[in-house]
Amino acid sequence: MSTTKPPQKPKTLLNTITQVVQTLHAKVNFSRLILKPNAKVPELLVHQADIDKPEVYPLLGDRYVVGRSSRTCDIVVRNPLVSQIHVSVIRDAKGTKLLPSRPGFMIQDEDSTNGLYLGRRRVKMLPLRHGDSLTLGPPELASVARIEYNDPPPWYIQTIRYGFYGFCGVSAAVGMVVLFEWQKFQVDPLPETVTGPVIVHAADGRPLREANTIAHLETDRLADFGSYLPKAVVASEDSRFYWHLGVDPVGTLRALLTNVRGGEIREGGSTLSQQLARSLYRDYVGTEDSAGRKFREAVVALKLEAVYGKNKLLKTYLNRVYLGINLYGFEDAAKFYFNKSAKDLTLSEAATLVGILPAPNSFNPIQNYQLAVQYRDRVISRMLEKGMVTEEEADRARRSRIEINPKAQEFLESTIAPYFYDYIFVELEELLGVQLAREGNFIVETALDPPIQTIAEASLKRSIQTTGAANNFSQGGLVTLDSNTGEILAMAGGLDYKESQFNRVTQAQRQPGSTFKLLTYLAALAQGIPPGQTYSCEPLTWKGQSYQGCERSGGNVDMYRGLALSENVIALRIGQEVGLDRVIDMAKRLGIQSKLDPVPGLVLGQSEVKLLELTGAYSTVANEGLYHSPHAIKRILDSSDCTDINDINTCRVIYAYDRENPTFPSVLSPSVAETMTTLLQGVIRRGTGQSAYIGLGEAGKTGTTNDNVDLWFIGYLPDSKLTTGVWLGNDDNSPTNGSSGNAAQLWRDYMGQIAR
Question: PANTHER family this protein is in (predicted)?
Fold first, then answer.
């Protein structure tokens, strides 16, 4: 095949300029050239067999002709297999589907000889999409002449697109896993299991609270719970219950974000269906606090929702949820607390029962009336927000007093060591997590010694009613630890649990006064400073604070005398020598978790601490430097997983202190602990703690704050391995007329009775 080339015009400057202008007019619509800086325009890439790199043509105009003719085509492909006019590329004014305002292009075959192909399909007209690669001829000619359309979408469109693809892929994978997991359990019929109580045993195996004898009753219809209870539960526990499918993405995300920020969760992440899944399918879901457990819980919830209606699941929840003591379901709770059926409950009573759900052993109106009222009102407010009750109904309910069944009050007031019993559930939540701790079916073993507990309560009460009445203090706290193990043997958190449930051992933050000097002296001994080293009794100025000199000594005083007589300036000079950071580090090593400010006043007990944690620090010294965290719980057993229900030793152990702590850190060398014991024994033999003298080698330290607001004594018996902390004072921080000698005297009277 031969062709004759047309005659060419002479290459003059005028001809060249004319040809460039004509080409630009053909390719560019100048009305569209007003582009934003860095604006991207669609491109056409032309691949030819004899050219290594593709030629790139920005598509700024409205129409382009592609072919072999250099006279009539805007984009020339010099290959004999390409027609003179092969295809045209035309702007589509409608734009793309994703971005209607963004112009797109169409490609159209202009009756070419060899055609236009997308893969193996011949096309006449085609809307171009980013990445389209078309052959100017059959697929076999792809290496000869091929065009490619390049118009990538904005980054946010690509993000949305690939995010959607990823979401669909993950959803499909999760769906397959869920379907596979569904084969592992059956939901029709529902298991008969109900969540059981938490039974707390003392060291001798005696339960601290007897089991309730009310028979478990279940209602057949949701209407049997009255008009308020179902609404109160939905409003409080799962406000989106009627629209989610078992897992609430909004609630889950909110709980996750709140946990990350460390704030208070108003609504938990678990739906009613998930809570029901945990209690009914415990064997499958498990009891560990893990992501796997949460996933299995969600799987069960989804299947429950797929098989049963919302009202059926809500009725089952109301019939079986654990409400403390030995109560399963709201019918049992209504009979126990109000001596009436659930259907007869008033709005105030219904909201009260729903309000105790988060912690039924602590929030009930018998043990903590004010807290029960607070949670009741919160439930009523939620119901009002959701339009479930009228404002008149809500106001009337909030103005109502909670009248409790007298028999229920008698039953709960029979609890042994009520402050200790409440603390069990605080520790239970720390060990198992809040949600799992709420489920019940636990047997909790403790080291509480009932005879010692009785003596502790009586001793504290006697001291407050006699010495306290004469010296203007009305409250106190007392706790005894086994120095060898850190186990709590006795705990009296206040004068009268019925009058105040606030625990002065575990909840009160008080300034410890000179009892905190223990940590400063230990830091010095650990640094190798000998106890015989002397320090000046002269006044001291440290970090802008001025402190007076010794009150009971003069000249230079060693550690023995300085601690025995509780000379503040000696402790300050020791703290200055070792450094406040080392004092704080020593406190943290011995279990002080309260915030400690690195200021000179720290040495003198300026920073507030809890009685339990400071008593634990003294217990570590008594244990020759081996640290045990003060704890109430020895073991937690799953009472729903026992080989023999009559033998708790056949139950599965969920937690054991010894198992979780196989080794115990030595935070002090034995020699430092021994020297510290000698120093503390001097406090009692010839110092400020003489009121605590028993004659059994006791060691301890007094502590008093300004205006005698806080009166402390913490000490131990090295041979008996008993450590006891005492605090006396007033809840409102008002001054007293007492002294640390009052606390030391209470310690002596009490420890003298329990010494082994």
Answer: BINDING PROTEIN TRANSPEPTIDASE, PUTATIVE-RELATED, PEPTIDOGLYCAN GLYCOSYLTRANSFERASE
